[in-house]
Amino acid sequence: LRRLAHDLRSPLSALLSYSALLRDGALGPVNDAQRAALDDMVASARELAAIVGAIGPEKPSRGRPKRRARRSIGNPPDGG
To answer: Residue 14: pLDDT band by 50, 70, 90 thresholds?
Structure first.
């Protein structure tokens, strides 16, 4: 179950982050109907995250954390 929770947590985290960015207008204007839909999406994703957390809590990291390459939103990973 811990592995399943981990596999669900990663895409769920991205879903939460991007939907919150959209809702807050960070990527452009959002009308009231879109904001309401995004509010529902964020709330549902948070509920799902709580369920996933209850199924398989994250293990404490061991040793040095891995560094991940960062990229800007909207830019493809290859930079082009």
So the answer is: very high
